[in-house]
Design goal:
582 residues; six-stranded mixed sheet; 20 helices; 10 strands; alpha/beta
């Protein structure tokens, strides 16, 4: 229940709308009861052949409640659905705002299918939070109070008898169906999450599955998961259908009990016999308010499960804390790592071990080394995706933990190894970097990134995940976005890895010549391709999380260390020829 309480706190601004909608639901059912008892009164009274004036009250009641029921039902649906959509909107915005500070570090432990199920399926489940969990009990309580007063006007005994059956309908049946259906909602949620994950794996990896002849096996797994989901849903539906019959039995029992109590009073004249039909019809109509309650218990479990899964993510502590009063981004863009060490959660080896280096403003630095040496970790720490375990990182004269992470990412452009393009046009994908960019600016950026032909295709759809473009084109789109962003510091993490040698060299030449308004941009290039290394001011060589060497291309070749070995291996040049080749 604590999850439900927390969810209700989030939607607190809509409490009055929720109460208003619940009152309209009560008024709608109350109008239905009024319509039926007015009709019963007219029929019972008419059997005694009274004057027309004696039937006037019943006739007015039928007209009034008949019209009111339809109008109130429409207004109730309008208000309740509007409230539900407002609640869903607030929950989606709340969840996104809560998750955004956790990205990317804290979200890496979740599979994409699991995250998708939480963002879509679990949030959609919460649409029942008001309409099927909160509102029905409120409406049932108000109807019970109404009938208590109505029956009490005849005899307090009638009120007590009816209250007992209302209590059984409000608590007994929901408890029974909830007991029979316990755990089903959480099992359905878990199955749907696994099915979502497996489906995404199948779609994204269908080429590999076909290549290794494992597609049929994967499809059988999907069929098994879907069959399990349908079995659980059938069980849930069977129990849901049974509660209507149980409520009907209680209603009939209430009618018989009241007839048993009512008969002596009618025979003695304590209650006018005309009102017998009115009382019985009112009792029968009142149980309409209790029909949704067993469903409310089942939706309560589903909402609690969905809330628990959402809070599992939301309650996680961000890997990076934002200072309460962040300092402005410094004018100087020099970068300094001092005795920085870092290990990823769940790993025993250090990604970086006590590294120190400085990048002067406007300097062009290449960071090279074997796979797993810690090159990309430097980028993640600099952009504050993670915090270093020890040591400090500063930009200008300020430690980055005193800066707003958003300000850092606004002033440091990144082209990572994985480029994401949205299912939009080329133009809209570029405008992510600079929403007010003109067509001329877009075309200049595309030209600098080696995509001159795209200048005439700005409104072409890029495809989901940019699948209408090749890997190299997607990578160059990312470079074009960074050029549009026009940041003083640019980091290229294997930015030209998917490009052919000629295009890659041309793009790199453009990037090395980039200048800001006042001076050249600071450029950090992470690469395993040792091409055109002589154009960099300095090269850092990483291995096992440590800086083994640093210096110019010529000096590193002369030293004959790790860098010289890598150069020799990639260019198939023997060590004695290295100096001459440089």
């Amino acid at each position: 229940m604590k999850e439900i309480i927390r969810l209700l706190r989030i939607v607190r601004p809509y409490y009055w709308w929720m109460l208003f909608a619940a009152f309209l639901g009560f008024a709608t059912i109350g109008s239905g009861i009024g319509l039926l008892i007015s009709s019963a009164y007219i029929l019972a009274k008419a059997a005694l052949h009274p004057s027309f004036q004696e039937l006037q009250l019943g006739i007015v009641g039928v007209k009034l409640f008949g019209v009111a029921r339809g109008v109130l039902r429409y207004i109730e649906r309008l208000v309740s659905h509007n409230t539900t959509f407002k609640i869903l909107s607030r929950l989606r915005v709340w969840f996104y705002k809560s998750v955004e500070p956790l990205a990317p570090a804290r979200l890496l432990q979740y599979k994409s299918g699991d995250l998708l199920q939480r963002i879509t399926g679990d949030i959609d489940t919460l649409e029942n939070l008001y309409a099927r969990v909160v509102a029905p009990p409120l409406t049932a309580v108000m109807i019970s109070v109404l009938l208590w007063v109505f029956m009490g006007s005849f005899s307090i005994t009638f009120s007590i008898v009816l209250f007992c059956f209302h209590a059984a309908a409000a608590a007994g049946i929901p408890f029974l169906t909830g007991y029979l259906n316990r755990g089903t909602a959480s099992q359905i949620s878990a199955t749907q999450t696994e099915l979502q994950t497996k489906t995404l794996d199948c779609i994204q990896g269908i080429g590999d599955l076909m290549l290794f002849n494992r597609l049929d096996e994967h499809v059988k797994t999907l069929h098994a998961l879907k069959s399990r989901e349908l079995k659980l849903q059938r069980k849930q539906a069977l129990i849901q259908r049974s509660h209507e019959s149980l409520t009907g039995l209680l209603m009939n029992a209430a009618v018989l009990a009241l007839l048993w109590v009512l008969a002596p009073q009618v025979s003695t004249g304590a209650v006018n016999g005309v009102y017998t039909a009115v009382i019985i019809i009112a009792v029968m109509a009142s149980f309409e308010a209790f029909l949704p309650l067993p469903d409310a218990v089942q939706h309560l479990e589903a909402n609690a499960t969905a809330g628990k899964r959402l809070f599992e993510i939301v309650d996680a502590q961000p890997a990076v804390t934002v200072p309460e009063s962040p300092e402005p981004f410094p004018e100087s863009h020099s970068i300094r790592f001092q005795n920085v060490s870092f290990s990823y959660p769940g790993t025993y080896s250090a990604a970086l071990s006590n590294i120190s280096f400085t990048v002067a403003e406007g300097e062009k630095i290449a960071i090279v080394g074997p796979s797993g040496a810690g090159k990309s970790t430097i980028t993640s720490l600099l952009l504050r995706f993670w915090e270093p375990l020890q040591g400090s990182i500063s930009i200008g004269d300020r430690n980055i933990d005193r800066l707003d992470p958003e300000a850092i990412r606004t002033n440091i452009g990144l082209v990572s190894q994985k480029t994401y393009l949205f299912g939009e046009t080329i133009r809209k994908n570029l405008l992510l970097a600079k929403p007010d960019a003109s067509d001329g600016e877009l075309k200049d950026a595309l030209k600098s990134a080696g995509l001159e032909s795209f200048a005439a295709r700005l409104d072409q759809w890029a495809g989901q995940h940019g699948m209408n473009l090749s890997g190299g084109e997607r990578q160059r789109m990312a470079i074009a976005r960074v050029l549009l962003q026009d940041t003083p510091v640019i980091i290229l993490d294997e930015a030209t890895a998917n490009l052919d040698i000629i295009t890659g060299k041309s793009v790199m030449q453009q990037l090395l010549k980039l200048r800001g308004k006042e001076q050249a941009k600071t450029l950090l290039v992470i690469t395993h391709r040792l091409k055109d290394m002589a154009q960099f001011d300095r090269i850092l060589v990483l291995d096992n999380g440590e800086i083994r060497e640093q210096g110019s291309h010529h000096d590193l070749l002369k030293n004959g260390g790790l860098y010289a070995s890598m150069w020799s291996l990639q260019h198939q040049i023997s060590p004695p020829e290295l100096i001459n080749s440089s």
